[in-house]
Specification:
- The protein is of the alpha+beta class.
- It has a single domain, classed as Alpha-Beta Plaits (2-Layer Sandwich), CATH 3.30.70.100.
- It contains 3 helices and 10 strands.
- Strands 1-3-2-10-5-9-6-4 form an 8-stranded antiparallel barrel. Strands 7-8 form a two-stranded antiparallel ribbon.
- The longest helix is centred in the N-terminal third of the chain and has 15 residues.
- It is globular.
Length: 182
């Protein structure tokens, strides 16, 4: 299953510091048993997603969020206290992808809010996602549980340009800003 964290960060004077902190935090997270992969993304210019940043993690279940090790590294938002004034976020877990693939600099993540009846996008093979948990507290982490259905695809960056995917309503396009850890 994948754990998604969609974020907006509103303090432009702290953005570089926040991004540097977050990358270090990703490395800590994948050292935990039960958190297999982690990678961050930023919305591509031209698209108008609700969320500017996206973090995708591979987890087999929610047990890692109950662990003492997760709490010790500040899991659930405690590690980012210095930035809380500028963070808004939504967290969810989805079934449909067992292990998130690494996304290279030459690729993009397409992330749909809901799942359209007909994807109709060329050079794209979307995967339907369903929420793996409802609105709940999972140890130190709050899972929002919405939306219940999503779709995700990894496509070549050239296809995003060629087919103007950034202009499609309801479709967010993200470029990697970190490597995939784990």
């Amino acid at each position: 299953m994948i754990y998604t964290v969609e974020l907006n960060f509103s303090d432009a004077s702290k953005t570089d510091e926040w991004n540097a902190w977050y990358e270090t935090y990703l490395k800590q997270l994948v050292s935990l048993d039960g958190l297999e992969t982690a990678q961050r993304f930023r919305a591509v210019a031209g698209s108008e997603p609700t969320w500017e940043y996206l973090a995708l993690y591979t987890v087999p279940n929610l047990d890692v969020y109950e662990s003492e090790a997760y709490r010790k590294i500040g899991g659930g938002g405690n590690a980012s206290k210095a930035f809380h004034h500028a963070i808004s976020r939504r967290r969810n877990v989805y079934n449909g992808v067992e292990r998130m693939a690494a996304v290279s600099d030459e690729a993009r993540v397409l992330f749909w809010e809901g799942v359209p009846d007909d994807f109709g996008l060329p050079d794209c093979l979307p995967v339907a996602l369903t929420a793996g948990a409802g609105n709940q507290q999972a140890g130190a982490t709050k899972i929002d549980g919405t939306p219940e259905r999503r779709a995700i695809a990894v496509v070549d960056a050239a296809a995003v340009e060629r087919y103007d995917f950034t202009a499609i309503e309801g479709l967010a396009v993200y470029a990697p800003i970190t490597q995939r850890y784990g």
